[in-house]
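Before surveying the methods themselves, it helps to consider a single example record, giving the amino acid sequence and backbone structure tokens:
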Amino acid sequence: MTQDAGAAPQPSQSRLAFQAVGRSVVRAAGSLGDGIGRAWTAVAAFVRPVTSLVSTTGWLVLVAALAAALIALVFDWVEFGFLAATLAGAILVAVPFVFGRLRYRVGVELEPRRVVAGERALGRLTVVNDGTANSVSSRIELPVGEGSAVFRIPSLEPRAEHEELFAVPTNRRAVIVAGPAISVRGDELGLLRRTVRWNDPVELFVHPVTARLRPSAAGLVRDLEGEVTKVITDHDLSFHALRAYEPGDPLRNVHWRSSARTGRLMVRQYEETRRSELVLLQSTEETHYDDEAEFELGVSVFASIGVQLIHDATKTVCATERMRLRTTSTTSLLDDTCRIAPYARRGGPALGGLRELVRDRIRLAPAASVVVLVTGGAQPLSEVRAVQTVLPPETPLVAVRVQRGAESRIAKVGRSTVATIGELGELAAVMRRVRP
């Protein structure tokens, strides 16, 4: 019988068999791989208490000992055999040093907990032997900021206390973390290390240097008692006009004398008043500043204005691109300013960085009476002027450009007020002359 020309060709039975075998092999390999992975995880978890004691130097010594032993076996070099035995012996000698148990009570105190950059701060480490027998000598490592302090703790009798004092570097604004204190047991070569954590970290807030400003920050707070706006509302304090009654209007707004005179119901209208609400922003994009010192000057200006606004009991929103700062008290604001850090925009600098910042953060206070923006001297005035385009017409912008060494001055750029600050000491005099 002949096969029709239009019929599809029959698949090869051999090919189907090979495909089935291939799929079985792949599934078996996958299952084997999963089994090996689970077994490796179980073995690693089982031996972790031992492997975690070996330091980086210890692993290098073990690898070197293994390599020397292989060379000695393959090439029959006795010298490498002695080297392998020496390195392995060093590891064995280090083992007894990790045994034993310490019963410590460790405390870390910082005094004071909050300082201004440049002020002195001291730390105190106390170690108490809570055991019933004399403790052995040990070493305690205490990370402090980017560094680490090492203290040798002598043998202590039961309930005996050992104290160590140390200085904390506070030459720049930061949140310095001290701790946790870690006791280290091991050999002097550092091949094996057994560590125990004794306490939680303690934070030291190094506040930025600030300038004292006059109350109300030179007119930035224009309406502490409520500023009359052009928005007409049915409920407020400032009377505006009368209009005809419409269904749904509350009867309490009916002006009965005018209604009796005109023969129809008339209701009162009011001009809306707003409580002062100021938005204080700082640009933290690193391309907006010429250097790190200029950025720190910007943080000091930002913190100085924010502290004065809180002292004036002005409703304030303080924010950067990446964080909103607390304004419940001057302490909470200054604590948060310690965490402000410059950031690099992905993809390099982009136009509109200031506009994006203001457009995003103005949503936190849509009825803001004034927006104050702190930025660096690397931003051209055209970019500062463009920020006004994302603000409501009735919301003025005060831009503070920090530029180290520049002459402090005030200028009008479109509808915006731009103040240039060259030194922190000139901020108070400049802000007294600012009129949004």
User: Anything to note?
Assistant: The radius of gyration is 36 Å.
